[in-house]
Amino acid sequence: MHTKKIGTKLFQVELETGGFKNLICSYVIKANKIMLVESGPTSSVPNLISGLEELDIPFEDVQYVAITHIHLDHGGGVGTLLNFLPNAKVIVHPRGMPHLINPDRLWMSAQGVLGFVSEIFGKPEPVPKERIIPAAEGTFDLGEGAKMKIIETLGHASHNLSYQEPFNGGVFPGDAAGTYFPEFNVVVPTTPPPFHLETALTSLDKLISLQPTSLYYSHFGKATDAVQRLKDYKIQLQLWASITTQGVKENWSLEQIRNKIMVEDEVMGRVAGFVSAHRIYSKTVLENCIRGFIEYIKQKQLS
């Protein structure tokens, strides 16, 4: 079994992308109108399909696939997934829509940024335009008066959406609220380039105002104490920005900035060994996310 119930009408599917557990998950809202949140990457679509079978959900009953953003690990597999779900429509930010219809640029960009990790995730397939519903704010009817709320939460990406489900009051933040490590019960930044700090902080304020009961992280799983986590994440991002600003001013290398963050950020100190030894997180967290801050600070100095 790689599915589990985590709330009223809500199930988590462990995707085991590339054989890695606790890396990426999708969610199933078993409402009158069934919705999936996150397709995950192409390579783990078979595991998501297996999860639907475990939950006894007929493929034709799935009405929506809501993706938080189009990065390979969140929405890269949606084109492949739709081959199994004949009646499903994809909800995505309008800025992400063109890259679902023609994912060639997305794939090339991912290969440049992620390197070998993009190959683990797999190449995305196109999504037919008529099966896409662009949305930035609003609600979607799940039947019987239940509505899923859509919140535009930019910063990590220019097209990140968050969703608040009506049955438990929890939020699917995509990467707007960082990466959750359930093994340590901590959150670390998810800030690859191009990252925009002020926009990300504004998005966190929007999520805090919702007073969510839980956060359902795509990386990875359900976390409680949602409001406090969001507030702590704001502080953490500001700490990383302060360290990176000093580093850029003094011409530190990426490694020097990373080492300073490991010392100053208590959370990163706790997970340093785990992240350094992890084949994917060592690339994404310890390289790409720090690079996102460096490029942001340099761009800010030029403006």
Fold and architecture overview:
It is a single chain. With 303 residues, the chain is α+β, with helices and mostly antiparallel strands. The strands form 4 sheets. The protein has a 7-stranded mixed sheet with strand order 1-2-3-4-5-6-7, with helices on one face. The model has no long low-confidence stretch (mean pLDDT 95). It is globular and about 60 Å long. The chain folds into 2 domains: 3-234, Metallo-beta-lactamase, Chain A (4-Layer Sandwich), CATH 3.60.15.10; 235-302, no CATH class. The chain is built from 11 helices and 15 strands. Helices cover 40% and strands 20% of the residues.
Task: Walk me through the topology.
Layout: E1 3-7, E2 10-14, E3 25-29, E4 34-37, H1 45-54, E5 62-66, H2 72-75, H3 78-81, E6 89-92, H4 97-101, H5 104-114, H6 116-121, E7 132-134, E8 138-143, E9 146-152, E10 161-164, E11 171-172, E12 179-181, E13 186-188, H7 197-209, E14 215-217, E15 221-223, H8 226-249, H9 254-264, H10 266-277, H11 281-302
Parallel strand pairs: 4-5, 5-6, 6-7
Antiparallel strand pairs: 1-2, 2-3, 3-4, 8-9, 9-10, 10-11, 12-13, 14-15
